[in-house]
């Protein structure tokens, strides 16, 4: 029996998913281009070529396993879709939907009001120059490893070299309402945004506050972004990973690092996977 070590699982689970995507985007691109080197080389060698997976892809489609819902809610698929969204500057759409789901679980009226305002400001309000892509309202930016290019953008004074006329024009543009036109981080404008604004202002807040906007964002992911994802290298990598999942895991895929001693049922040892470099605890059960 193979169990992932509790220490390793805790460490992995504590990592913010979007931060992980940002940190590994370059690595994923190298995988897609076939130029990756380092610890996961053996894993990459196990991935079949996309050209060999035509029948496998056909089988998945017949089993209805290549839909937005199935891919987005599957670990590898979710990771690759988020990575694709990041590359398309649309990661906030996925984060918005996740935050709305958490908002719906809030029961305290004061918490609902506070979080609703934060979600509106973060995703529905006017886009700002210091916005951090992929930041949830349930996170604290100071606790995250913000990519250098975002930090640089935040620290740049937009008006340092602007004329007085340009400054006045920018100040005026910030006052333009998003209710009719404008830009925000999820690409939804008009009456749905106005309704949310009015409900928050009048404190008529319930779990359905963001439903209409959430549906529009979901439709955008489903009807526009997901079809484009299926034409991208990320989808091809997804199929290669899914095919690898069908292969059985054997003892040959692990290297024993050290013995932890004998338990009630047999030997306990720490092992490392050749393919992923993750640590696992092995229980060698005595069949006596």
From TrEMBL:
Pfam families: RGS. SMART domains: RGS. PROSITE patterns: RGS. The keyword Transferase applies. Transmembrane segments: none annotated. Residues 67-239 form the RGS domain. One of its GO terms (molecular function) is ATP binding. InterPro entries: RGS, RGS_sf, RGS_subdomain_2. The keyword Thylakoid does not apply. Keywords: ATP-binding, Kinase, Nucleotide-binding, Serine/threonine-protein kinase, Transferase. This is RGS domain-containing protein. It comes from Reticulomyxa filosa.
């Amino acid at each position: 029996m193979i169990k992932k070590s509790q220490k390793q699982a805790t460490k992995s689970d504590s990592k913010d998913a979007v931060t992980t995507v940002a940190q590994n985007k370059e690595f994923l691109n190298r995988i897609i281009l076939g130029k990756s080197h380092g610890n996961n080389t053996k894993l990459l060698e196990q991935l079949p070529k996309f050209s060999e997976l035509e029948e496998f892809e056909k089988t998945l489609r017949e089993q209805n396993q290549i839909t937005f819902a199935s891919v987005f809610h599957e670990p590898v698929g979710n990771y690759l879709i988020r990575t694709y969204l990041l590359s398309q500057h649309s990661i906030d759409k996925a984060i918005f939907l996740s935050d709305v789901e958490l908002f719906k679980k809030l029961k305290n009226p004061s918490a609902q009001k506070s979080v609703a305002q934060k979600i509106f400001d973060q995703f529905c309000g006017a886009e700002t120059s210091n916005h951090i892509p992929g930041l949830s309202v349930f996170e604290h930016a100071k606790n995250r490893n913000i990519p250098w290019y975002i930090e640089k953008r935040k620290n740049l004074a937009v008006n340092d070299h602007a004329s007085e006329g340009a400054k006045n024009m920018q100040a005026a543009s910030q006052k333009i309402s998003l209710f009719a036109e404008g830009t925000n981080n999820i690409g939804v404008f008009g009456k749905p945004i106005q309704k949310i604004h009015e409900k928050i202002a009048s404190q008529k807040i319930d779990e359905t506050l963001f439903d209409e906007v959430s549906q529009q964002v979901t439709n955008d992911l489903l009807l526009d972004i997901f079809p484009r994802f299926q034409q991208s290298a990320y989808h091809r990598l997804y199929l290669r990973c899914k095919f690898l999942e069908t292969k059985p895991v054997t003892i040959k895929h692990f290297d024993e690092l050290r013995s932890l001693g004998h338990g009630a049922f047999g030997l306990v040892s720490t092992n490392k996977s050749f393919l992923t470099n993750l640590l696992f605890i092995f229980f060698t059960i005595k069949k006596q």
